[in-house]
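ligand=adenosine-5'-diphosphate
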Amino acid sequence: MTSPNKHRADVQLDVQNLKMYFPIRRGFLQRLVGNVKAVDDVSFQVRTGQTLGLVGESGCGKTTVGRCIARAYKPTAGKIIYTNEANQSVDLATLPASELKPYRRQVRMIFQDPYSSLNPRMTLLEIIGEPMKIHRTARGKELEDRVAMLLQKVGLSPEYMRRYPHAFSGGQRQRIGIARALALDPRVIIADEPVSALDVSVQAQILNLLRDLQRELGLTYIFISHDLSVVQYIADRVAVMYVGNLVEIADTHRVFYTPKHPYTEALLSAVPKPDPRLRSQRIVLEGDVPDPARPPSGCPFHPRCRYAQAVCRVEKPQLCDVSAEHLVACHFADTLHLKGVETIG
Ligand SMILES: Nc1ncnc2c1ncn2[C@@H]1O[C@H](COP(=O)(O)OP(=O)(O)O)[C@@H](O)[C@H]1O
Ligand SMILES: [Mg+2]
C-alpha cells in the first residue's frame, strides 16, 4: 500500500478530489433516496510543519474533511496522500482498516468541547495514558512519567495527574485534550474548533500553546474554525469551504488582505475590527448554508452572493489560479474588487 514518494518532500498531506457522501434512507425498506454531499470534490495540500486553516460557516463540511483525514470515516471517493517517516506516500483514503493502525498514532484529533470530550470518570493519568495503553507504547511507571512530561508540556502541573477533569477550567481542559493528542508522538494534528468554546483571553493562550508545540515538535496542523479571526494568527494558508466545496485557498495574508471570493469577503467583513470606522462595513449573509443533500444549481454560493449574475445560476465555477498558489472558484474572480480586512492609515 506504500509507494515511493512522487510528491514534493515537504508536502505532509495531499488531499485529492475528496468526497464524503452520507446516504439518506427512507421508509420501511430503507431505500436510498439521496445523498448528503457533505464533502464534494475537495483538493488541497498541507506542507510539513505548517498549519492549514479550514474555515466556513457551520454545516460547510469542515469536520467531515477532518474526520476523513483521521479515517474516522472512510471517504466515498478521492485520495488522502500522507507522507510517512520513511518519506513514502500512503493513501489513507483507501487503506484497509487492518493497515491503519500506525497512522492512527500519527494523525490525531483535538475537539471543540473540552467538557464533553473528556470522560468525567477518568483521572488525567487515565485520560492522557489511555492512547498509550491502547497502542501499547508505554505502561506502569514509564506511562506515568510520560503523562507527567506531557502535562508539563501543555503547561499543567504533573501533580494534577490523579484529579478528574471537573476540577479544571475550560482552558485547562483543552490543555488536557492537547496532552492526550500528543501522547503517541503524532505528526499531524487535526484541531476541530479547538478554541471556539473558550473566552477570548483563554483562546489566545491555547493558540500560543499550539504554536509553541508546533515549533518544538515539527507538527503539521489542520486548524478548523468557523471564526476567521482565530485562524489569522495560527494558519500559514487558509482554505475556505462552502457547502462541501473549497471556494478559495491561499496564503493567510492573501486571504485576509486580497480575498477573491465573495463568500470570503462576507466572512471577513464579520471579523471584529479594532478601528470603529471600519465596523459598519459588515456584509450580512442572508439565509442559511444550503442543505448539502440539495445543493443549489451552478455556483453553490449564488443564492447568497451580492455579485451573482446569470451564469452563476447555471454553471459551477471550477477552482482556478488567480495568482501563484491562490486558487478561487468564482466566475468573476478576476474582475471583482473585494474588500479584505483593511487598515486605515
Ligand atoms: N454522519 C452524518 N450523516 C449525515 N449527514 C451528516 C453527517 N455528518 C455531517 N453531516 C452533514 O454534512 C454537512 C457538513 O457537516 P460538518 O462536516 O459537520 O460541517 P461543519 O464542520 O463545517 O459544521 C452538514 O449538512 C451535516 O448535517
Ligand atoms: Mg464542525
